[in-house]
């Protein structure tokens, strides 16, 4: 039987943060993906909460957390997470991050190495390499479009963006418009600033165990992101999970939870 979740809020220097929390034991911090909030992790947390202390915040600017009018950067999100964990007196944690959350998790681990027991990643953002350059130009274009222009130019746009239908195009645009902070962090910043926060040159200094989870049906971009982290982080392992969809967290929460459990238990065994 799943334990009841506790919802909470805290006022930090960066803004008010909302989070979900449940369970006791080793602490696992779940950081959501680019177009999500902490609710993304609930199916996985439900399967782990009987044995671990699970905490899932809405990142600053996302979900029910405050969206202050500030300049957003990965460093800001890392600082906010550090303030949050310090306020809760959480000194040793495991970090689990999807997409943007993975970028933040690894950035945190690089800065606060002594606090992090291990990191689990799913399609983590924050690296550039062969096949990953200029991957956001379509999103920039789509976000700039006005609806009337979209409708008038639908035929040519569908060919350019490789979208199968008007509904798919509008759904993608709504996703971008609904997540302005994600857009700022991922591609709506100066190129030099983005490059300064990317991790491909820093992963060699990541001296904690890393598990990268990859679904059998992950997109080509997700596979490239996973493989880049797995290759560049010195203590990283890539684990492939069976799946029937590219949405691994939605379709295979049991497999994801089992992989996280195995990773944490192996670390605890090594410590013992």
Automatic annotation (TrEMBL):
Q: Does the record bear ATP-binding in its keywords?
A: no
Q: Name one GO molecular function term.
A: hydrolase activity
Instruction: Please indicate which superkingdom the organism of origin belongs to.
Output: Bacteria
Q: Keywords assigned by UniProt? A: Hydrolase
Report the residue ranges that make up the AB hydrolase-1 domain in this protein.
Answer: 28-259
Give the protein's recorded name. Alpha/beta hydrolase
Organism (species): Stenomitos frigidus ULC18
